[in-house]
Amino acid sequence: MSKIKEIISQEKANLNIHEYAFMKSNTVIFSDEVRGLCEKNVCGMYGTSWACPPAVGSVEECKNRCTDFENAFMFTSLAKLKKKYDTVEWRETRLVHELITEQVARIFRDEFREALILSTEGCNLCPKCTYPEKLCRYPNRMFPATESFGIMVIEQAPLCNIKYNNGANSITYFSMVFF
Ligand code: SF4
User: Fold this and answer.
1) Which domain holds residue 84?
2) What is the mean pLDDT of the segment spanning 60-88?
3) Can you tell me which atom of ligand 1 is nearest the CA of 129?
4) C-alpha Rg value of the chain to the nearest Å
5) How many domains is the chain partitioned into structurally?
6) Candidates 46, 52, 121, 123: which one to mutate for ligand 1, based on the most atoms within 8 Å of Cβ?
7) Residues near ligand 1 (Cβ within 6 A)
8) Parallel, antiparallel, or unpaired: how do β-strands 19-24 and 170-178 relate?
């Protein structure tokens, strides 16, 4: 544990991590309320990939998967926006966060091979997801959405002293690692 803390502390700036926190996995807040938003398909990703509900399982199953690990790590990256409502810019900045998450995943999995990685929204690694006909093409690169696991990021972040909102012209992206 102290080794991973040291690596993250050293690599924070290189990785473009804005803020981060380590915690015990049994302190993470799970809620059916978040899953309710998924089921209303607010983001349009429900039922479209292996990274989203219903494929990820029930909130109870997701919680059990997470709490089977002792520790959790939450981090954010921050994107400054040129325009306030530009979906192209939102998509581009999210993809940057996904690349950061892949780097963070590699660091954790070098130390903890089975680490579970959660990131933003659904997965769009493949032009067309194999869901539900065939197995996921890249299970190790597919990071389910934090919210799809029922994690209430808006409540979890302040408990970890991480800012949920960093100002009007920015987007704060969240990922988590269970290890
Ligand atoms: S990696 Fe490809 S097959 Fe797997 S969930 Fe993502 S889009 Fe679907």
Assistant:
1) 2-178
2) 92
3) 8
4) 16
5) 1
6) 123
7) 49-51, 123, 125-126, 129-131, 136-138, 142
8) unpaired
